[in-house]
Amino acid sequence: MDSEQSSSVKNGSQRRLQNRDRVQSDILQQAVRVFAQSGYEGASVAAIASASGMSKQNLMYYFPSKQLLYQRVLDDVLDEWLARMDTLAREEQQPADVLRAYIGAKLRFSREQPWASRVYALEVINGAPLYGEQIRERVVPLLRKDIAVFERWIADGRIAPVNATHLMFAIWAMTQSYADFSTQMALVLDRAQLTDNDYADAERLVTQMVLAAVGVAPAGEKKPP
Q1: 3-state secondary structure at position 90
Q2: Which residues of the chain fall below pLDDT 70?
């Protein structure tokens, strides 16, 4: 095979891989919405295929079973969530800056990926029957790493003594609620959906609450005696 033929074969292979990635991405985008709306049991491969604009048989060429598709959806959700969680591990920065960035990242995830947040929440609410092992293997080690950062800050006198585990639980609950319960919030606020100002207000308030809990003053303010 000459160099021209070899290049043509290589380019053809790359195009096929790119097309496969694009199709899989389209399927996953629809699957996360369907799973979030219907749950694992209520969702069907046929419904996801229809939303993706393809036949059930074609979809199953890419994802041979509903469970494999569901697990891939949750893998992608967890990848992004853990990437944002990793912000907290930068202990060389000031605690206020780290916590502010972490809270902002979690709220952006709730705003930008509401279906992803909801499908993950549904799995956990149901006892994580299909994804519990992955949560133990991936979330728990990073959480322990983040808790160790809090404990070093406490030991160094940089923050007040707190139960870091439950503080993290509280941050998760406050930030994730803006995805899982955004419809209720919008109804209470008498609007179609949450606005830029709503998320900005939420970020300010959650940050203030967390910084107060650890005895750290926001930027520009003196720490109380």
Answers
A1: coil
A2: 1-16, 87-91, 218-225
Domains and CATH numbers, the chain: 1-64 (1.10.10.60), 73-217 (1.10.357.10)
Q: How far apart are CA 78 and CA 114, in angstroms?
A: 13
DSSP-derived 3-state class of residue 174:
helix
CA-closest candidate to residue 119, choices 31, 53, 178, 22? 31
Distances (CA, A) of 95 to 88, 140, 212, 218: 9, 22, 12, 10
Q: List phi, psi (to 5°) of 219.
A: -55, 135
Q: What is the pTM of this model?
A: 0.83
Residue 57 near residue 101, CB atoms below 8 Å? no
Instruction: Read off the pLDDT of residues 143-171 as tens digits, 9 standing for 90 and up.
Output: 898 899 999 999 999 999 999 999 999 99
Residue with tokens 């979330």: 139
Picking from 99, 118, 119, 113, the residue whose alpha carbon sits closest to that of residue 184 is 118
Confirm if 209 and 96 have CB atoms less than 8 A apart.
no
* Tokens found for residue 122: 């549904």
pLDDT number for residue 2:
58
Residue 87 near residue 48, CB atoms below 8 Å: no
DSSP for 10-39? HHHHHHHHHHHHHHHHHHHHHHHHHHHHHH
